[in-house]
Amino acid sequence: MKTIRLTAAQAMTRFLSVQMAEIDGFEVPIFAGVWAIFGHGNVAGLGEALYATNDVLPTFRAHNEQGMAHAAVAFAKASRRRRMMACTTSIGPGAVNMVTAAAVAHVNRLPLLLIPGDVFANRIPDPVLQQIEDFDDGTVSANDCFKPVSRYFDRITRPEQIIPALRRAMSVLTDPAECGPVTLAFCQDVQAEAYDYPLSFLERKVYRPRRQSPDVQDLAEAAAALQNAKKPFIVAGGGVLYSEAEAQLQAFAERLGIPVGETQAGKSSMLAGSPMALGALGVTGTAAANAYAAEADVILAVGTRLADFTTGSWGLFKNPDREIIALNVQPFDAAKHNALPLIADARAGLAALNSALAGWTAPAAWAKGATEDKNNWLQNVSSFTYAPAEFSNADLPSDAQVIGAIARHALPTDVVVGAAGGLPGEMHKLWQPGAPGGYHFEYGFSCMGYEIAGALGVKMADPSREVICMVGDGSYMMMNSELATAVMMDLKIILILPDNRGYGCINRLQHATGGAAFNNLLRDSYQKNAPNIDFAAHARALGADAVKVSTIADLEAAFVAARAALNSQVIVIDTDPRHSTDAGGHWWDVAVPEISNRESVTKARAGYDLARKKQHIGD
User: Fold this and answer.
1) Do 51 and 43 touch, CB atoms closer than 8 A?
2) 513: in domain
3) For residue 183, is it within any domain?
4) DSSP H helices in 97-154
């Protein structure tokens, strides 16, 4: 057996550099690069190794460990899980800063390789700087925090251990069912230790998408259920886009006359112009999609976890005779809520169903009514996104009106990016994506701070598309550092920043559950000296071009100018924290206290108890 003597870190970086993905007939590196913030736990070992492979495995410098991992997650999502990135940090705070991003990747089933430095395997210098000590377990380090948010976790305590660990990591990262974050905690002394590695370990390997076909009997049962349906409905989840099955889904729905509602992750899997595309589903859904979901007798859920925002906390699907078919590559998701499982890749599963349903279509009246309801909804949307030419001094625009201004000048190739707060709900209902992948909102973990770093990752995945980041003032304050990274990398993103001076979305939820205005808007916090934050000035300090506008007309003009610019752009506008689109939507289960001395809470609890009676549990 031929070998080569390398440090463990050198062997790792060489291994990563020769892992390839086949995309559209071309072989490209599956790892587009490594994000790195160096410290004593990785600079001498992995840092030196990355320097030697920088020409084939680029290293990117970020400003925040969580931010760089968010960028890597967004890159993987925008790449449909076909390509990915790795992230390395030192031990201690640098490492645990990535835990939140690991959770984002875990919830959204996205590939992310995390390589935090770890304590000394030989334990001679213990306790080393930044080391967490467990009084009862000498094997524990801060990196154990990654275990519940990793699909695969390993601690590298000997140099030869990276051989099975990296092979297992690649299996998880590229498996459609297992896909998620992998953490390889890399002891800092082991990184620098040498070993005679077999050359076969460093051979080039090419990964192609695995497309599992459904079981024959499961397929027959699913087809029979659909053939008996009078009111079939499709839920399109993120798995449709991960599988690159959007064209198959649209053709399937249109041929069979089945209306489609989209989850946050699945939005843009159907072209907005399709007669069967009813848009957003669930708590933030359109009136059209929710009405048809409520009546449906057979629900074909494609590539979705069926989370509470999609199902209206399991109060949306109201037909007592309903049956769910769960087409999913992951058995864990396919078995939820007593569904009929159809375990398969979305594209392969839809193709098999299409063949099995040859000659069958849904009742014509059901499909015709869906198209009519969809058109009625679109006409209604304009009443929320339209803004008068002038507001009175007491009025500020709503988020919906801001969205309308951007939508009027958006192109089909644009990608909108966001994550948390009120904007995802408004965007889910109101935005009409022009092309698959044009809607990129992280709502599985709904992680504040994802937005700007995520926009950077999306831009890295496809620099040819204009990336528009919708970020509220609350999320901007939580994490804005990667705006400077985007400027440094000369990757233009456009930030639209509606400033409602606090956490407006949760303030509205607080009010809806009977709560008093408390600790959400800046004006309602304990700290009475609320700052008047100049976001435009701050963005300029990070290197972006920025402007604050006061009217919707000015916002539109600024967006047109931002599109023509070369540098990253930030447009700030004050908005009203009170308003959200009251059309569409569905009840969401947010528990209200049973006991309170406030009448508004008692009244809200009564409404909550009434709504809970409409939930169906275990069926």
Assistant:
1) no
2) yes
3) yes
4) 99-107
